[in-house]
Amino acid sequence: MPAPHAPVELRQFPRPDLQPGSALLRTERSEVCGTDVHLWHGRLAGVPYPIIPGHVSAGTIAAARGPLTGLEGAPIREGDRVVFFDVHRTCGRCRACTVYRTPTRCAARRVYGITDSADEGLFGGWAQAIYLEPGVGLARLPRGVALDDYIGGGCGLLTAVHIVERAGIRLGDTVVVQGTGAVGLCAIALAKLAGASAIVAIGAPDDRLALARRMGADVTIDVRTVPPAERLDVVTAATDGEGADVVIEAAGAAAAISEGLELLRVGGRYVIAGHYTDVGDSTINAHRQINRKHLEIMGCWGSEPRHFLGALSVLERHREIPFRLIGAKTYGLAALNEALADAEAMRIPKALVDPFA
To answer: Beta strands of the chain (E only): which ranges?
Structure first.
């Protein structure tokens, strides 16, 4: 991706010299997610174009220099199917890392496919190989979990693990999920696992609402045809007039914030995860919508290694959840502009990338 709004180009790169503790991954799957569309639109600050996008990927260790150990403690060898945590180079020493315990906000934080320039080498998943530098968090893909299961969930699943942790979903909670993209769909599935008794999904289009029901939503509301007042009526009716215990914002729309506050009960909890880019100001009434209702409002930015391992555990233990269906279509490297256009137009929940297709 040479620059915002520019077509993705095919380029060749030299095979990297492996440093001690590094590896070369033969990429078998990557993803095109909403963040990649934002990158294409130039909506993330500080991106060092040209970049190789693709921040969540999976493949096989083609070569390694020195012993490798996964985050779960298991040795990793050449030929193993491996996934890796895309965030790397957090410093572990700054206030964000040590005092505030928010390593996702470390100023030194780097993310494969987003913050590493292609001029530095193979640091993104839309390539036939990825350089896994020393210190990158690795894990073997659990036996029986297919590549499309992992990438179908992808970064949305990792984020959803963080969302459910932040929301503190308890047995019997009623949960509303705003947005039925990859993050929202994964949040629906994990809210169900966490014990939610009823889940309402608000989104579009029809195929995503149908998939939301397969992921565990009890009620789906089409945001295109049902106005906000009626959406509130549906949620109120589903909660005996109280409002939802938890609302999860995964829509990335400015108007979603004010509506989400309205959907909550007194003392409810709101987790905002969809605003990864600046989509403008949201208008709220702090007295009526927040203070008088005594709400808890939490941001959720990215994910951490424990969420990465948690996602793998979910995939291994709950194979009945159809995460692979989120990745609706697979594209080769030569078709990535088509994949971006399909993702931008919301024709599919998520595009998968097979670099050898």
So the answer is: 23-32, 58-64, 68-69, 75-76, 81-84, 87-88, 110-111, 129-132, 138-140, 174-178, 198-203, 219-222, 244-249, 264-272, 296-299, 327-331, 350-353
